[in-house]
Amino acid sequence: MKKLTMKEIAKLANVSQSTVSRVINGKEGVNEKLAKRVFDVINEVGFVPNKAAQTLKQNQSYIIGVCVTETYNPYFVELIDTLESVARNYGYNILLHNSKRNPILEWESMENFISRQVDGIIFVPTSDYNFEKISKLPIPVVSVTQTHEEFHSVGLDHYKAGQLAAKKFIYTNHKTFGMVGNIPDDKFFGFRDTLAENGFTFQMKNYITIKETSSNSYLIRQDIEDYLDRVTNLEFTSVFTTNDLMAVEFVKAVEDRGIKVPEDISVIGFDDTILSKMMGISSIHQPIEEMVKTTMKLLLDRIEKKVSSKKVQIKLEPTLIERKSSRLK
């Protein structure tokens, strides 16, 4: 993608070059409509201020920007730690930002990365809201943990993960099924479709919705308790959760109500973090080290222009780690 000059931006926005300069540098005294016109052009073309563009073109900062959506989940903590170690082995440092699941903060992180002249950006993962703008960034970008057609990405095959959980429950003679998660995603679709293929219908009343804003264990537990308070009895004997944090809080909540795991209900989590290991919860394993190494290679190959710019999506195979929270037979 061509990196435009400030003069060219001014021409596209039909303003003076000095106006563009004042807008970019946050100077006061710029008419609001003119500023919006300049920002619209900048967002459309993915403009990088000329000085940064020249630096990016001629040199390397050996810094990679990493934007995460959350830090309360042990899975992301482990992933970031591994990412930092792998980057260091390649001679790079990381600049970490937490978007807190806020697309505006995510975009501000991107702007900060550009101003800091990073060589590439890794999103862990990214929000749908900024897909189009991210795809226009003038530096290499890779998303990790989820795959997207819009840009290079590495992630687990979430659909197959849902299939694994469903097959395990069916094999151990469960007839009723529940799920805990945010909005239904590929994990849910894989779970639901596999049940259907085996003659079972997933009842959406058995889906415990965790709000996107529920950003810690306490809030997740609250969402689960709210659901349990609304139903007289659980109408399922097995439940698949979309991360281990939800699995842990679900187990605590039902056991506090006298429901035994796995005697009364089997539980399978997702991520296979330290939480699932400590609590003895069966979980879909995410190969963090393989995922991070694949992501770094994908990004560095593009930073060093070793490969074409064709978008690449890499899906890794999930595995189920069985522990005491689910029936063995």
From TrEMBL:
<keyword id="KW-0804">Transcription</keyword>
<dbReference type="InterPro" id="IPR028082">
    <property type="entry name" value="Peripla_BP_I"/>
</dbReference>
<feature type="domain" description="HTH cro/C1-type">
    <location>
        <begin position="2"/>
        <end position="48"/>
    </location>
</feature>
<dbReference type="Pfam" id="PF13377">
    <property type="entry name" value="Peripla_BP_3"/>
</dbReference>
<dbReference type="InterPro" id="IPR000843">
    <property type="entry name" value="HTH_LacI"/>
</dbReference>
<keyword id="KW-0238">DNA-binding</keyword>
<dbReference type="InterPro" id="IPR046335">
    <property type="entry name" value="LacI/GalR-like_sensor"/>
</dbReference>
<keyword id="KW-0805">Transcription regulation</keyword>
<feature type="domain" description="HTH lacI-type">
    <location>
        <begin position="4"/>
        <end position="58"/>
    </location>
</feature>
<dbReference type="GO" id="GO:0000976">
    <property type="term" value="F:transcription cis-regulatory region binding"/>
</dbReference>
<dbReference type="InterPro" id="IPR010982">
    <property type="entry name" value="Lambda_DNA-bd_dom_sf"/>
</dbReference>
<dbReference type="GO" id="GO:0003700">
    <property type="term" value="F:DNA-binding transcription factor activity"/>
</dbReference>
<protein>
    <submittedName>
        <fullName>LacI family transcriptional regulator</fullName>
    </submittedName>
</protein>
<dbReference type="Pfam" id="PF00356">
    <property type="entry name" value="LacI"/>
</dbReference>
<dbReference type="InterPro" id="IPR001387">
    <property type="entry name" value="Cro/C1-type_HTH"/>
</dbReference>
